[in-house]
Amino acid sequence: MQEFHSAIVDLSHVLNQQPNSAEALLLRSKVYAKQGHTTLAIKDLTAITKNDPKNWRAYYERAYLRHKQVEGMGDDSASLQPPMSKENKADGADAAPHTAVTNIPSLIGQTIDDYMQAIRTGCYLNDVIETVGDLTIRLVEWTHDAKHCLQVVGGLAALIALMDETEGKLKDQRRAAAKAQSIAASHDTTLWELEEDRLAKVIACLLTQRGRLYILASTDLDRAVIMDYHYAPAHFYRGAVASVRACDDASRKVVIHHLNRCIHLDPTITGAYIVRGGIYCADLRFNNALQDFKAAVTIDPTLDDIWIQIAIVFLTHYHDCDASAKACTRALKNDLGLTQALHLRGEALARQGNLKAAMRDFVRLVVMQPTDRFAHLMKGKLLLQLDHARPALYAYKQFMEMGSELDTLDRITRGKAYKVLSQHSQAVQEFKLAVDANPSPENLCLLSESLHSMGDTEASLHVINLAIASDPGCAKSYVRRAQCYIGNHAYKTAILDYDHALTLADKSELYRMYYERALCRSQLLSKAWNQLYAMQRGERVPCYYENNFQSGQPLPVTLSATDMNTTCMTAFIKQTYVDTAADFTKSMKASEVMSDPYVERAALYALGGEFNRAYDDLATAIKIDPHNLNAYISAGVLKCKFSMYTASIECFDKALKFHPHCALAYYNRGVAYHILNVWAQADSDYTKSIALDPTNMDALRNRGIARCHLMNFQGAAEDFEDVHKNAPDDMELHMGLGYVYLKLSRFTEAIALFRSLSSKNPVAIDAYLDAGNTFFTMALCMTDSTNMTAALSKADTSKSLLQQSLHCYLRATRINPTDVNIRLNLAALFRAKGDESNADFHDERAMMLLETGQFAHAMEHMNAAVNISVALSPIVAMEYTLLVKNKAMALHELHRRRQQLTPSAPHPTKRAEENGGGTRRMSVAAEVLADKKSILGIKKTLSVHLANRGKVHELMLDVDAARLDYLNAVYFDPLNFDVYFHLGTLAVHERKLNDAIEYFSQALVINPKLGVASVNLGVVYLLLQSYDLALYHLDMASTLIPDCAFVWANKACVYLKLDRVDDAVRNFSYAMKCMPTFAPFYVYRGRLLSSQKHLHDAMVDFAAALKMGYTGEL
């Protein structure tokens, strides 16, 4: 500052000697400006203009200082105030702010005059000319008076005329010199060309600024481009003016051409990006529009309106709520009072599920603008979603009260508000009044929608027909009528209306129409499939017609009566399937940023068996919208179909991450855990699903099952009772509820349920079995009672209950005599009667002790059972004594019997040839059984006990004793296939594979339906590397016991030996379906998948195995 003061002192000495020195005055004004004394600087510059009116630099510097004051950048704020007299100095402090504001327009006018004078006196800088245009527009916006614009246009016109005259003189001089052909002609010509080029650029700039200020803009701008093609603002304003009249594709291409040229010449002109972005938006090229808008805000981040446009594009066209909210936040950083940005950010946050943040924005709106009705409306909607019903009601009331103050033309808004409130009758009343005042197609469509919401489909169709009659070219009316037809299940008629609407619709409406038509075809496809299934079941399917409330002949629902057959229906389904997929594809092309069509088409592909395409569509939907709930749930359900439960749980986890209040996601994840037998997690998920949706009966039923496995029978009873109230005829529910009552000792209720079930289904084995178990349990409770005062009556009651239990077991035995569970229950019942002399008692007791690992005690009971059976007949006792003393006797008898029995046939043809021998053997056995019934029965019983004792020896690793008991059992009952099976299994463990083949073959000769023998025989052939025979027997086993997982696992091993890896993987998948919790199957399939380079699927299998507790090597 000391240097500035010294400079001013020196310059003042110079001016004392030379008062009119322009250089000194100009330099001193710059020093004053540096010090912030703007008034003194302007005073010096004014002195220069008085002494030298042609000094453009003084005008330019004075205009620049005044421009800084207009922008608020000048430090000398007192310069904005007029000089005050002594009389009004007392009031100066109060009047200063108002005076400053009112003098800004005059200050802008003085700045424009200075810039114009600088141009007249020789300042031909483009920035100065462009600043004149900017300040003129600002002055007009401030004063709302066009006379300022006219004055500037007149000044620019005079300058253009002057420059044209100067340019004409230069051209005349150049032509005259060319005629003279002097020696210096070439040098002068070059100078003249440079001067002409400079003048042309100045004229182009003047024409551009004049063109932006008045209505005859296009002529000036075209001439400006001709004068200086490389002047970027001329191209920009040329494109901006053309965009006002751009109404078709050709005119929009011209606008974009001008703007592209401008951006190519000068990439920093933000207006060019903004106008081009607007043109792209009008042409539905939103990606290009976003790029231009982002470029504009990158150059100038203070463009709040452009931030808002970016947010609108993200929200309405890309449905990217997060990006829209960020753009609004950026705009609000520049100006906290932007209500439109608050509206948009609140809507985006609400769609994201961030209701509390959205609520804060709408509360700010209500505070800033208490008369904004729609801020109250959105606030009420969010309060309702947050379960604040009463504040939401007050907000809705405020919205309606504000609307009641308006005139009757606001009926449409009131009707829409009533629709939001679900008060459809009042909405219909408002829309009827609006239609009476203005029966436009839009108002008729709104009335039709409200009538449809009320359930009055006929009236809704009548109204929409009136709308179509009033304006046949309105596509929305046909879409509305198609929706009414869909509500009435008239799908083919609705498709015809969609077809007609597509011929009338704009480009922006095509996506929704194609999508709705595809959904309509999907429903038609489901109806056709149901009819085809009925035809395949042999049912008669009549031809029904659509009821669309119209006169004339309606269309058939699917096919006409003449074509109602399986062949025509199949062809119709195929064609409808193809048309539906095509509609979804067209919808995707019309809007590439929507994920719903991909989800629906995936469901269509899954229905048609095209699962790979379904997976691809769901992956695309998730890529477009990573928060899409339906996409994650559909992907999880689809993976469950292929037993990929771990992957499906991951999908449901992602769905719940973005939508933590989705009951369906919790339910589906619970089902996946249910299938994996992870009962605690399944119970937790079912509970969360029920809390969110108490009407989900399937979740209640499944939670009851999970609680049974968790031993929470009281909770299971509550769940089953709730389901029973809604489904009293569910047979399986009767069984589950009865089982739970039995566990809770509520015997009377359990018996009542079982008897009810048996009366409704006389062949229900489980009902009789469970009823018998209930009586049996009640009898045991009576027996265990320690109250001796009523011992006699309790004994009688116990006997009565045991008798009723015996009756139920016998009824079940008559329905299915081969049921093992019934036989075991009968044995337990007989043991309860205290029949100690019965050998079956000791046998069953031994098996029970065997399960607990008490081998010694089990062997004692087995020996007792054998001794009791031997003592029943002297003949049997003698034979048994001989067998014990002569151990080779049983082996010789076995060889003799094996020679008599028909050998096993490895192929069906050979077995068919020997059917005669099998028939003769059975007839002989029947004759023997008729002659010696009692002795044969004893021998058969003894054979069973000996075989069971052999199992005990085998578990005790006493192989010799086990083999001896098995041989003795075969001696007493040569047709006991179970013994041959155990002999074969024993031979496999001892690696006597040929003997094992003989034993298993004999077992299959006696009982060809013994699936486990076929399995083991297949394993033996696998060990002998006879893969064809192994496959044959394993195939036989798969037909006999298809639910046995080890059948498929062994088949997979055979295919692996044959290098048929794909077949091996498929069979391991079948095995996993049978035993979904057996971890080694997942490991084996994972190894095969990794060898095929399917690493992702292999990792899923390994992860599932580890989660199930597998500790081996992967």
Automatic annotation (TrEMBL):
**Region spans: Disordered:** 72-94, 898-918
Under SMART domains, the record lists: TPR
Q: Does the keyword Repeat apply?
A: yes
Q: Which domain of life is it from?
A: Eukaryota
Matching entries from SUPFAM superfamilies are given as: Protein prenylyltransferase (SSF48439), TPR-like (SSF48452)
Q: Which Gene3D superfamilies match?
A: Tetratricopeptide repeat domain
> What stretches of residues are TPR repeats?
270-303, 339-372, 595-628, 663-696, 731-764, 977-1010, 1045-1078
Which UniProt keyword terms apply here?
Coiled coil, Repeat, TPR repeat
Query: Any coiled-coil ranges, and where?
Result: 156-183
Q: Does the keyword Iron apply?
A: no
Q: What is the designated name of this protein?
A: UDP-N-acetylglucosamine--peptide N-acetylglucosaminyltransferase SPINDLY
Q: Which organism is it from?
A: Aphanomyces astaci
